[in-house]
Amino acid sequence: MLLVLLAGPALAGPLQDLVTAAKDGDTVMPPPGIYEEHLVIDKAIVLDGQNAVIIDGGGKGTVVELLSDKATLKNLTIRNSGRLHNALDAALRVKGSNNVIKDLKIENSLFGIDVSKGDHNVIRRNDISSKDMPLELMGDSIRLWYSHFNRVEDNYIHATRDFAVWYSHDNVISGNRIHHTRYGVHFMYAHENEVRNNEIADCVVGVFLMYSNDIIITRNKLLRSWGASGMGMGLKESSGIRAFGNEIVGNAVGIFLDLSPYDPEATNEFEQNQVAYNGIGVEFSTDWEANVFAKNDFNANFSQISVRGGGTALRESWQGNHWDDFAGFDEDRDGRGDSPFEIYSYADRLWMENREANFFRGGFALEALDFVERLAPFSEPKLLLREQFPFIVASVLEEAEKPKDALEMLLQ
Asked: Are residues 126 and 209 in the same domain?
């Protein structure tokens, strides 16, 4: 059944009346206008704004609450939620399953889409931004809370705080463009999710996992996360992670590992990633093991690796990676170096072991000291990494599409 409100000025009458009058399975198509109200949807209807309907919350509370299963919201603008973090004021709150939320424009709302205990929902092609306030005071663009088997696809997320996934499993986050946020995607106690084919750029952190296991991170572009905490990908006490085919370019730290994997019987696998033009390619919070790096391309990073606390990366597994600063030969032309690739720490130990000295990293004094240390070491340098058979030519993404030039992505 199709319900259409036949008349309405620019400032329209109650949209709630039309929704209340509808029955399960009805399609509701309000006339163009601005509806200044808070809306509750508790039945399986299709609400289609035809790109001409604005629901305005007037700066108070949550604007739209979707409490039913099997409903569809599409082609609407939702704006002007409240500002209260403790109330989770949002443009749209979802407490149902098997809903479709697509082609919405969400603006000037603290939180964008808050899904709480909702499963098998589809969130697709939405444009989401928060309120004009400092980054740390913004709300999350999308928040999945105890919500499973959801698909979040092809959204444009910008000027928000985090995309947060808490206590949620088996969600797929794919094809999204996430720009100018704090955490592009942030997992907390969230297992068996997948992040694929997203572009996450100019955020503080691209993808960060905390206490989250068995997550797949593949074919993403993690670009230009700078600042004191900037990193393309970070893992804290997370295990069973598979990260492959990603382009990790232009970040303060490309990959950061803190006590990961945490499960002593698990490994983390990083394969066929392009790690380029980062301040540090891979940084470890301490001497650790059970991370496998295979067939990655480490190119034009200021420092290829760093290990805090005076440790090394010798217990990690390095297999068939390409290092742009490898100075060896391949006389038998098998594509592998005839000698191991090794990274030694000279004056680098100053900033690796004393974080305050990081300020001088790249400066003339530290570079001069490093040069002298290499020329005539005052003390024995520390071996940080050894790869027995490095690749001469990068094999990154040999089974996938060739990535765009890393420098071009850095300068975009």
From this structure: no
pLDDT in tens, 154-183: 999 999 999 999 999 999 999 999 999 999
Contact 47, 72 (CB under 8 A): yes
Bridge partners (DSSP) listed for residue 177: 156, 199
> Counting every residue, how long is the chain?
412
151-189 b/e (C-beta count within 10 Å ≥ 16 → b) = bbbbbbbbbbbbbbbbbbbebebbbbebbebbbbbbbbe
CA 22 to each of CA 27, 44, 201, 229: distance values in angstroms, whole numbers, following the listed order: 8, 9, 42, 50
Report the Cα–Cα distance between both ends of the chain, in Å, rounded: 48
pLDDT tens digits for range 269-305:
999 999 999 999 999 999 999 999 999 999 999 999 9
Strand ordering across the sheet containing 90-94:
39-41, 64-66, 90-94, 111-116, 142-145, 162-166, 183-188, 205-210, 231-236, 253-258, 280-284, 303-307
Strand partners, 345: 382
Q: Of 181, 210, 230, which residue constitutes the final position of a domain?
A: 181
**How much is the pTM?**
0.89
Q: Is residue 19 part of a domain?
A: yes
